[in-house]
Amino acid sequence: QVTELVLDNCRSSNGEIEGLNDSFKELQFLSMANVELTSLAKLPTLSKLRKLELSDNVISGGLEVLAERCPNLTYLNLSGNKIKDLGTVEALQNLKNLKSLDLFNCEITNLEDYRDSIFELLQQITYLDGFDQEDNEAPDSEDDDDEGDEDDDDDVNEAGPPGEYEEEDDEDDGASDLGEGEEEEEVGLSYLMKEEIQDEEDDDDYVEGGDEEEEAEGVRGEKRKREPEDEGEEEED
């Protein structure tokens, strides 16, 4: 049931690694970097293998074995091997699903028009040494995973647009604010009513005091009126 197997820095014996055999039927990723591999002749049949790392070995040819035993390869890393000419790479034409090929630090990269020649020879590939024909960098597998996560986020967003939730939240906030406002209004009304009652009582006191003052002023007026009258009567006498 193993789908990924990393054997980097193990030592191969007679072109094979002990224990690696046809029983790994579910294997999709295999890495054998720096294992002193000289040939692929003893590579087991791995029909589901999609990515194969063979960097920093001493492979110089025999790449036709890959199409026979790993027909579904999409990524192949042969950087740091002894590959010198286009004839060796031509054997990869039968890998119809191959999209990315790495030949870093191989002598073949010193050839004139190396990139153009490889893209012409292997028309099924999209990326050579990490870049396409337009010099656009190949996406990392981690970036692919991130994009997948973003797609998941988009699906969540599609299921429930954030705007709707925001509106609902706004309505809830408005309702809570309104409730607080109503409470404040009730408190304010009762407070005002108390103030009005007190004001009315104060007004009554003020009116009563005013009546007394008016009565006092009336008495004074009467006295003033009487005084001239009294003076007149005295003069008449």
UniProtKB/TrEMBL annotation:
Q: Could you tell me the Gene Ontology terms of the biological process aspect for this record?
A: chromatin organization; regulation of apoptotic process
- The record's principal subcellular location, in a coarse class, is cytoplasm
Q: Where is this region: Disordered?
A: 130-237
Q: Which UniProt keywords apply?
A: Chaperone, Chromatin regulator, Cytoplasm, Leucine-rich repeat, Nucleus, Repeat
Its annotated compartments are: Cytoplasm; Nucleus
**Which Pfam families does UniProt cross-reference here?**
LRR_9
Biased composition annotated in UniProt, kind: Basic and acidic residues: 217-228
Its domain of life reads Eukaryota
Q: Name one GO molecular function term.
A: phosphatase inhibitor activity
Q: Name the SUPFAM superfamilies for this protein.
A: L domain-like (SSF52058)
Q: Does the keyword Cytoplasm apply?
A: yes
* GO cellular component annotations of the record: cytoplasm; nucleus
What is the recorded function of this protein according to its Swiss-Prot or TrEMBL entry?
Multifunctional protein that is involved in the regulation of many processes. Histone chaperone that specifically mediates the genome-wide removal of histone H2A.Z/H2AZ1 from the nucleosome: removes H2A.Z/H2AZ1 from its normal sites of deposition, especially from enhancer and insulator regions. Not involved in deposition of H2A.Z/H2AZ1 in the nucleosome. May stabilize the evicted H2A.Z/H2AZ1-H2B dimer, thus shifting the equilibrium towards dissociation and the off-chromatin state. Inhibits activity of protein phosphatase 2A (PP2A). Does not inhibit protein phosphatase 1. May play a role in cerebellar development and synaptogenesis.
Give the family this protein belongs to, as stated in its UniProt record: Belongs to the ANP32 family.
Q: What's the name of the protein?
A: Acidic leucine-rich nuclear phosphoprotein 32 family member
Q: Which organism is it from?
A: Illadopsis cleaveri
Give the gene symbol. Anp32e
